[in-house]
Design a protein that fits this description.
Order of helices and strands: HHHHHHEEEEEHEEHEHEEEHE
Distance between the termini: 22 Å
Bound molecules: flavin-adenine dinucleotide, protoporphyrin IX containing FE
Radius of gyration: 22 Å
Shape: globular
Length: 403
């Protein structure tokens, strides 16, 4: 609980911290990697640093978390922190690292705000940091324990059994466990972190959604080759596309991820995806098909054209196992559909073109502008925000859950 002493200090300094938070986040990361360069070898994603998206995500999150504490000093924003805790767990973050982050963050606040950081101000922000840190450590401990791992045992070896070209840009990897230790199956919608060795001798983590129900012996993920368009090509997706083949062994974390399907309430499920955003949807639909679900399921998918629609045969086959399931597609570059879909439209996805089931739960995945559009349209139709979940393929710069 945020103390009565710190609350007014945080309230008074939130505007100035908020106004400088991007600069604080930038300097924080520079200082962190200067003092702890090992964190760029296997822990932090250097693509997100190069693009500036992770500093922006942190800069967005800190004022939101601090505001939540000021408004409800007796409640911890656990729901807001859950997404972060899953990401941390998939990277094997340990409690001892919170002191390192603390020291560098407080250094950056002092460096940017200078004399404005009186001992009283520093003490109040210190309290906010540790409230968040202990909440995260607590959630992460629960996540590790539910998976039956410790932070240093999240990593497991898997052998590539199949590498399946899906489209010109997308491949699917089917992996079999070659590690003695048991891996509990994922919850529908979860991801793994792949830890790749790079040519410069360092390691880089990237998250990939599980694109089919797994069973502890086999798992599957699907990767789009990221081209730079003027910037460097994506490091890990390029390696996975061009260097990794059948028989190679990959290091993956056990599955984590806060955005999971909850079919216990028995409500209709609507999945809306665009492009490579199909992957968690395919995973969730595969779980429903494997479980013999009787829930009404609808998939709405937008893509360039049918050839660009990754995992299309798998999802259509899985949907065929679900009574009454439907699939509508939108192709921005037309061409119609050869495959048996319920409806095909040209152009961008427009949910007013289909009749959505009453009282449904929604899952979105795709570029943020796409999800923003669909979410706004759903809310306009009266869908409560709490019934719309979304997955972002990168640091969450949207933070719609935090609204
Ligand atoms: C929860 C989650 C699930 C995901 N699921 C999937 C999935 O199922 N399938 C999938 O394909 N992806 C998925 N992703 C995305 C994936 O984790 C990677 O981000 C993606 O593969 C790109 O990684 P990369 O190493 O190839 O690119 P990176 O090397 O990380 O590059 C990313 C971008 O940064 C740009 N860049 C690099 N250097 C610079 C620079 N100096 N200046 C400016 N820009 C630069 C690159 O051009 C590129 O556009 C998921 C992400 C998350 C968080
Ligand atoms: C109170 C303390 C902390 C807060 C509030 C915090 C917050 C965040 C946030 C908001 C994200 C982005 C999540 C997303 O949208 O994907 C994130 C990711 C991350 N955090 Fe933390 N974090 C904290 C502590 C730590 C610690 C101690 C470490 C250990 C070194 C750490 C390492 C990471 C890493 C490696 C990522 C993923 C970065 C990436 O993929 O670019 N964090 N954290």
């Amino acid at each position: 609980m945020l103390s009565e002493k710190s609350r007014p200090v945080i309230e008074a300094t939130l505007p100035v911290v908020g106004a400088h938070i991007e600069e604080i986040a930038k300097r924080f990361y520079l200082h962190l990697f200067e003092t702890h360069p090992e964190l760029l070898d296997g822990t932090f994603n250097r693509g997100n640093q190069a693009q500036g998206t992770q500093p922006l995500a942190l800069a967005g999150a800190v004022p939101v978390f601090a505001t939540a504490l000021v408004q409800h000093p007796d409640q911890l924003p656990e729901n807001l922190l859950s997404r972060v805790a899953h990401k941390h767990a998939s990277l094997g973050i340990v409690p001892e690292q919170y002191q390192i982050v603390h020291d560098n963050l407080m250094w950056a606040i002092g460096d940017v705000l200078g004399d404005a950081v009186t001992p009283e101000v520093a003490a109040a922000w210190d309290e906010v940091y540790w409230l968040l840190a202990y909440t995260l450590i607590h959630i992460e401990r629960g996540l590790y324990s539910a998976r039956g791992v410790r932070p240093n045992t999240v990593w497991r070896k898997w052998e590539v059994e199949q590498k399946i070209p899906e489209t010109d840009e997308v491949v699917t990897f089917v992996l079999k466990r070659v590690d003695d230790r048991l891996v509990k199956p994922s919850l529908p919608g979860q991801y793994i972190t792949v830890q790749m060795a790079l040519a410069d001798g360092t390691h880089q983590p990237r998250q990939y959604s599980l694109s089919r129900a797994d069973n502890g012996e086999f798992c599957q993920f699907t990767v789009k080759h990221v081209h730079g368009g003027g910037q460097p090509d994506g490091e890990v997706s390029t390696l996975l596309h061009t260097k990794v083949d059948v028989g190679d062994v990959l290091t993956l974390s056990v599955p984590f991820g806060a955005v999971v399907l909850d079919d216990a309430a028995g409500r209709p499920m609507v999945f809306a995806s665009a492009g490579i955003g199909i992957t968690p949807m395919a995973g969730m639909i595969s779980h429903l098909a494997t479980a013999g679900s009787l829930l009404p399921v609808m998939l709405l998918h937008g893509d360039h054209n049918e050839d660009a629609f990754a995992l299309r045969r798998q999802v259509i086959a899985d949907l065929a196992k679900l009574p009454g399931a439907s699939i509508y597609v939108w192709y921005s570059h037309g061409g119609g559909s050869q495959l048996p879909v319920t409806g095909v439209f040209s152009g961008e996805m427009d949910i007013s073109q289909v009749h959505l089931p009453d009282n449904a739960v929604y899952h979105l995945c795709g570029p943020i502008p796409f999800m923003h559009e669909v979410r706004s349209a759903l809310i306009k139709q009266g869908v409560p925000p709490k019934d719309i979940q979304y997955e972002v393929f990168g640091p969450d710069l949207w933070q719609a859950d935090y609204e």
